[in-house]
Structures are given as structure tokens and as C-alpha cells.
Write a structure and sequence with these properties.
The structure holds 2 protein chains of 2 kinds. Chain A is mainly alpha-helical. Chain A has one domain. Chain A contains 7 helices and no strands. Chain A is elongated. By secondary structure, chain B is of the alpha/beta class. In chain B, α6 runs parallel beside α7. Classes of the chains: A mainly alpha, B alpha/beta. At the A-B interface, loops of A face loops of B.
Chain lengths: 164, 299
Amino acid sequence: MRYLLIVVLFLLSVFVGFIFFNKFAKRKKFFSALIMLAEKLSVDINFSRERLKVLIENFDKSTKQNLLGVDEGFLNYLDKKVELDEKEIFKSASLLKKEEKEFVLLFLKTLGRSDVENQTKEIASFLKRFEDMGAKCNAEYKKYGTLSLKLGVICGLFFAVVLF
Amino acid sequence: MLNKILPEKIAKIIGAKVNMKYVNELRFRADKPIILSVNGKNYFLGENGLTSSLKEALFSSKIVIEDIVFRASECSIYSVNEQIKRGYIVTDSGLRLGIGGNVVEENGQVKTITNFCSLNIRIPHNIKNCSLSCFDQIVHDKTIENTLIISPPGCGKTTFLKDFIFQLSEHNLTHNVLLLDERGELDIDLNANFYDKIAFSSKKMGFENGIRALSPDLIVTDEIGQEEDADAILYASTCGVKILASAHADSIETLIKKDFFQILLKEKIFRRYVLLSKRNGPGTNEGIYNENLSRIMAF
């Protein structure tokens, strides 16, 4: 019974550590995917001038998965199904901070509102900020992400030693 | 088709309380009442549908207008900027939105239009057989005469052209028709079998490329009005291609005064002129004229 408890507590600690690790990893992947989306929009708007809906739908599927549902929320807005607000767009993106949500929302609000030249300039300026945010998230991931995983393992071992 | 571009409230009222079959135009002006043109007469749009009372009218705003343009461009203004430069957008469903706003020019060329402040949404209608009364005057022994349809804006020129193409199919005339469609609205809901299309091209380029690449028997084009359009038509006529076109003018007299028309008149390129008006509603046929501009048929 005691051994079972030790194993359960160890796994639980590692799991909690992994949850935090995953949070930092997802945030990092989100900004990386957002940067790729913004770059693709900039290029395609210049080249094909295709509609936003088509461009977002055709965005690489595996990268799209890291966008935490923001792309789906935006597509719903384009289809006139929902309003373009934080509640609708970030339904599955609770990992983002308030100011990050506000900035991403501002980015989405500017999409499709101007001619090619101005749209490209706007995307470029947002891209710069996204890259800063992405770099910050990457640093957080390296610093806190791996730390949380290590702490989870250490805590698990601590419980194991204490209970043994 | 209006649901996609209009604000929900307005779309609901129009959907529930207005018979769109008779609506020709919807007009939105910043901070002014919304106006619907029904069979050529203007009414305000109120909570309960059409009204003549200004007190009951719903008002539009700049934000509403910008949102409609945004929606009409499928949320991608950049993709329709070439159309916006020319003052309109045509949606996939064939609605034409005329846009008023601030024109931004650079090096003498229109760059875009911003600050949209007025909007005229034209509702296309297919009026079956509306060209039939003129058909025998335009087509002799399976040969089509070069014909110009003239009328002021909103009198049914495009509808006439579309029905004429449909009638060619109905009469089993297997002419290869080329639609030279500068605004992309001629083939919306067009039920005909023998046509090709070049869209969003200038008349000059469209005529030259179309004749070379698609070998048409008949070129149908909307709204000629510039000297380069007249040159393109002259070029087509020397290639043996027949032409069915439309132009803005409220009478034959007005048409004669237009600069671009002088060369076409002198060369007697068009052998038939069909004059339309709104006298008894859009599409009222006022007469058919021959190459000497003498009326050969009155209605």
C-alpha cells in the first residue's frame, strides 16, 4: 500500500510539473505559429491577393494546431457567426495574458481593412511585436518550463524519500 | 445574398418586410436615412419595412457603410482595391456596390478610396424575355446586327444584355459569344450555353485578346464611354466580329453629342440602337433606331 502511494505521489508531482512545462511550451508554439501565419499573410496578400478566409483555411494544418483555436474563432467572425471580441476569439486560449490577447485581437481587427500596401506595412509592424513576444515566451519556456518539469520530478522524489 | 453583407438588423427587416423582387437599389449615406428604390420610386427603410415618413426611417452611419464594404469584399479590402479605385465592388452574387468617399491620388493616379461615406447597392434582376420585343430587329437570318443599348443609369441595360444572350440560346443560335465583362456582373445567373468570358479587363485589352484567343462571333460588353472603347469596337468590327454594347445616354440626341461616339457614328458601326428608360419602371423600351438614327420601331 505504501509503495503504491509513493508511486502515485511521484507520478502526480511529475504530472503537475509537466502541466506547467506544457503551458510554457504551448505559449512558445502559439507565438511561433502566429509569426508564421503573419508572414504567410503578408506574402500571399502581396502575391495572390486571395481572400483572408481562403488564406487562413489553407494555412499549414500542423502549425494551425498551435494557434489555440484563434484561427477558428477568426474564421467564425469572417463567416459572420460571432463578434470579433476576446470572449469569442480566445475561447481556447486561456494561456495567453490579457495584454497579449488585446494585441492579437488588434492584429485581427486590422486584417482585411486596407489596400495591399498598407496591409503589408501593418502586418510587418505587428510581426515585429509578435517576434518580441515570441522571444520572451521562448526565454520563459527555457527558464521556467524545464524548471517546472525538474521541480515536479524533484518533489516526487522528495515525497518518495519521506514516505519510504 | 444581402444577408452576407448587411448588418443583421437591417438584413432582418429587409428579409422579413420588403419584397426584393421589386427593389432596384439600396442607398446608404452617412448619418442619413436608408433609401430603397422600388420600381424606380424611392422609399425610406423603417422598422416595419418601406415608409414614406422620415420620422420612421432608419438612419445609416459611416461605420455601417464601412462594415458593408468590408463584408462585400469578403473581409479583404486589399483583394478588391482595383475595383474600389474605379468606385465600385461587385460581389460573387452579382451585387454591385457603388462607393463614395475620399479619393486618394498619387502621381496623378487613383490609389484607393477611403472614408466611405455613401453606398449604392444595385440589385440585379433577371427579367426573362425583356429583350424579346427587339430580338427580330437585331437578329436577321441568324445574323446579328451591331447594336448599342442606350439609357440613363439603372434603366436595365445589363439586364437587357443578359436576356439577349439567353435568347440566342433559346433560339438555337449557336454563335460564340464573348462577354467582355469589366465589372464581373454580366454572367451572374446567366442561363446560356455558348459564351466565354473575360472579366475585369479594360475594353482595349479585352477586345484584342478576346478576338485573338477565343474567336468570338459576337462580343457583348457593358458601358462603353471612352475613346479607347470606341477604338476597340472599331478594331472588332474590322475583324468581322459583331458587337452588342451598352452606353449611358438619356436620348439619341445626347448620345450624338458624346465625343467617343463621333467615330462610331461616322463609320456607322452600329446598325441598331435600343433606347431604354425608367418611364414605366426600369427597362421601359422607348424605341429602336437604325444606323441613320431614324426610329424604326416605337413601343
